[in-house]
Design goal:
Elements: E1 6-9, H1 16-22, E2 26-29, E3 41-47, H2 50-59, E4 63-71, E5 90-93, H3 96-106, E6 114-115, E7 138-142, H4 148-159, E8 163-167, H5 178-182, E9 186-189, H6 193-200, E10 204-208, E11 211-215, H7 218-226, H8 239-255, H9 257-267, H10 270-279, H11 291-329, H12 332-336, H13 338-355
Parallel strand pairs: 1-2, 3-4, 4-5, 5-6, 7-8, 7-9, 9-10
Antiparallel strand pairs: 10-11
Length: 356
């Protein structure tokens, strides 16, 4: 959309830092006393975490013509709404479930919290899965926290000749792209990846560590959508039940793909949603929460800042250590002595086994 984007963070580690840099975004360290963001003026500040909000506006005296706070969860303390919400121009929630929690918890009107759901970037709309296998041959489990029943179902499916790939922590971590998703007949996942699959017409089975509805149908779609396709609001299932549902519900899910893609076009199109967001009227918010809540929030923030600074120092020390290890391993002497280390480790394992 033509904006120049800066990314401000307490901890900007890999692998995400490199992804931002590839796109030409400037990464700013909020913990630096001489941070480039101090006293800076922006057209827009878009914030997801309360500690970032406090540090930018209280410590660094940042100014912005428009301040947006988007809460990504009603459960994660770092994503709670800041105490002085009167400084916000827009308060967003990533789901109807989260909006309902915020309005009830803070005593706000429903119109004061705008639902801004997980949405599909522009590049996804250029692709489409045109051929769908009549039977399941390749499945991706996309999760950083797959529950035991999903891993169990994957084992059963593999035993029945289905190729199952786990993408995420514990499997193969990668930045998601249309080409990755189009490679599979179906995807087992929750959250952000669900509307991605809708846009590409890739069948998606909605289930993870919260449970889930499974294949999305008329009876469960609204509740699943309101809960951000997180799987909350539904029961958990056994590995055998998951396997049975995945195999037997696949063909019906293929018949629903046009419906899901139209839904994503209307409600999960990122460019369209941003344009609507910036053009809509701003609902005034109360100046701040009560004094007790405000003082408690700032006290918690001070504790968080102490922890963030400790982690930042440890991050820097670990990075320096890894660089030194890489330097040593790149030297001629390290490569020259490699066969001796292999032989030494082999003999040591034999001795250890003999002692046991």
């Amino acid at each position: 959309m033509g904006w120049e984007v800066w990314v401000a963070a307490f901890l900007s580690g890999e692998p995400m830092a490199s992804e931002f840099k590839k796109l030409g975004f400037r990464i700013v360290d909020i913990l630096a006393t001489d941070s480039a963001i101090s006293n800076a003026k922006f057209d827009l500040a878009w914030i997801h975490h309360a500690p970032v909000f406090y540090e930018l506006f209280i410590v660094h005296k940042l100014e912005a013509a428009m301040v947006v706070f988007c809460s990504l969860s009603p459960f994660e303390p770092l994503e709670a709404v800041p105490a002085n919400i009167g400084n916000l121009d827009l308060l967003l929630a990533n789901s109807i479930e989260n909006r309902n929690f915020i309005t009830k918890d803070l005593g706000l009107d429903r119109d004061q919290v705008v639902v801004f759901p997980n949405a599909v970037p522009t590049n996804y709309w250029d692709y489409l899965k045109e051929f769908h296998s009549p039977v399941l041959r390749r499945i991706a489990v996309i999760s950083n926290h797959p529950p035991l029943e999903v891993l169990g179902a994957a084992t059963i499916l593999k035993g029945n000749g289905v190729d199952v790939t786990h993408i995420g922590r514990g499997g193969t971590p990668m930045l998601m792209s249309p080409n990755h998703l189009l490679h599979y007949d179906a995807v087992i996942t929750i959250g952000k990846t669900v509307p991605y699959c809708f846009a590409l017409k890739v069948p998606v089975y909605c289930y993870d560590h919260f449970g889930g509805p499974g294949w999305l149908i008329e009876d469960n779609f609204d509740l699943a959508s309101q809960n951000n396709f997180s799987g909350r609001g539904f029961l958990k299932k056994s590995a055998e039940t998951l396997t049975h549902e995945i195999v037997n519900g696949y063909r019906e899910s293929v018949r629903m793909l046009d419906v899901y893609r139209n839904h994503a076009m209307n409600f999960h199109n990122l460019s369209k949603n941003l344009e609507l967001l910036f053009s809509q009227p701003r609902m005034p918010l109360p100046k701040q929460l009560n004094d007790t809540d405000s003082k408690q929030a700032l006290k918690q923030h001070a504790q968080y800042m102490r922890l963030a600074k400790i982690l930042s120092v440890r991050d820097a020390e670990l990075s320096a250590c890894n660089k030194e290890i890489s330097r040593v391993k790149s030297t001629f002497s390290w490569r020259l002595t490699a066969p001796f280390r292999v032989a030494y480790n082999f003999i040591r394992r034999i001795w250890t086994s003999a002692d046991n």
